[in-house]
Structures are given as C-alpha cells and as structure tokens.
Amino acid sequence: MNTKITPFWETKTLKEMTTQEWESLCDGCGRCCLNKLEDWDTGEIHFTNIACTLFNPTTCRCKDYENRFQSVPDCVKLEPADVASYPWLPSTCAYRRLHEGRGLADWHPLVSGSADSVHDAGISVRGRTISEDGLTVEDYENHLIDWIDKD
Fold first, then answer.
1. How many other CB atoms sit within 10 Å of the CB of residue 116?
2. How far is CA 14 from the centre of its chain?
3. How far is it, in rounded angstroms, from Cα 111 to Cα 20?
4. What's the pTM?
5. Nearest to 55 by CA among 77, 36, 72
6. Residue 151 — very low, low, confident or very high, per pLDDT cuts 50/70/90?
7. What pairing do the DSSP bridges indicate for beta strands 130-131 and 45-51?
8. What SS3 state is found at 16?
9. pLDDT per residue over 90-114, tens digit each?
10. Does residue 3 carry a pLDDT above 90?
11. % of the chain residues with pLDDT over 70
12. Contact criterion met (CB below 8 Å) for 14 and 110
C-alpha cells in the first residue's frame, strides 16, 4: 500500500499551524528584511536594497533572530492572524501565497527539499543588498529597487 502524506501547509490554515510549522514556512529569501518606503499619498510600498542591520547577506537570515526585537524595536513579528495586514509582503512570500490560496512555489525549500533552492531560483536577495548601517533615511530614495515582485 502506497500512501502519500499530505504536507501540513496543504491541510492546515495559517492559524492552525504550530509555531514550528509557521516558522518553517519562511523560505529564507530575505525580502522582508529590506527597508521599505511608503508613499503617504497613495499608500504604495517601495522596496529598497537596504537590509536591516541584523541581516546576514550570505545566509539571508537574521544574525540574532531570537533577540531581534531588542536590537531592532521596529522589527515586525509576523503573525498568522495578521498576514492580510502586511501589504509589503512580496508576492513570492510563503505566508502571503498560502493566505491567498496559491500554495508554495516549486523553489520553496519545503517543496524542493533544499535550503539553497530559493537562492538558485534567484528569489532571495543574496548578493543584492547593502546594510542600513551608516545610512540615513534621506539615503533610501537612492536605493529604490523594482525587482522584488518581478521575479
């Protein structure tokens, strides 16, 4: 008898997931760790290639994930109940994709079985960022990018 086990992300809602399941949905692209600018008139979100001070540009992960809120008080803790209120999540984000009923992409590590697939597919920001350290908010407009939702 050959029984296929259905992955948790296909059987549970985001709110039903355990903390471990929820955390495993992060594909390690690093896009949410980029600084963004919001147009106050239109509400449109504009990404920059400027990464959070805690962002590791090689691994595309936080350097101090467990303590990030002490170092970066405005870091946003993504919560299953609040995914719809994060308009800045890129269209590639697993949290957004599942919330919208689109499933995980082929390159997602949970689907591919490889943590490198997100990088191999060109989805991650690896090699495309600079650190926010030493920059001022006035510098951000010089670092706007348009490739986030074009991949």
1. 13
2. 15
3. 16
4. 0.91
5. 72
6. very low
7. parallel
8. helix
9. 999 999 999 999 999 999 999 999 9
10. no
11. 97
12. no
- Domain-wise residue ranges, the chain: 15-150
Secondary structure (DSSP) of the chain? ---PPPPHHHHS-GGGS-HHHHHHT-----GGGEEEEE-TTT--EEEEEEEPTTEETTTTEETTGGGHHHH-TT-----GGGGGG-TTS-TT-HHHHHHTT----TTSHHHHS-TTHHHHTT-S-TTS-EESTT--GGGGGGGB-S-GGG-
3-class secondary-structure state, position 34: strand
Residue reference for tokens 């689109």 = 102
Give me 84's structure tokens. Answer: 């719809």
3-state secondary structure of 115: coil
